[in-house]
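Course assignment 3, question 2. Fill in each field.
Student: A.L.
Task: Predict the tertiary structure for the chain below.
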Amino acid sequence: MAVPKRKHSLSRTRQKRGAHYKRVRVHAVKTSDNKAYKRPHVEEYIEL
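Answer field:
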């Protein structure tokens, strides 16, 4: 029976699967009018 070749190493798969465990928590920031919460992005400045 033909077995397909492994195209990537098993450790790479583990790194991809475990990536969400190492992800940092997203902090919700209250907007300046105190009506909503938003996620802080790097490219925009948020008034607190």
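Instructor remarks: The chain has one helix and two strands. The chain has a mean pLDDT of 72.
Grade: pending
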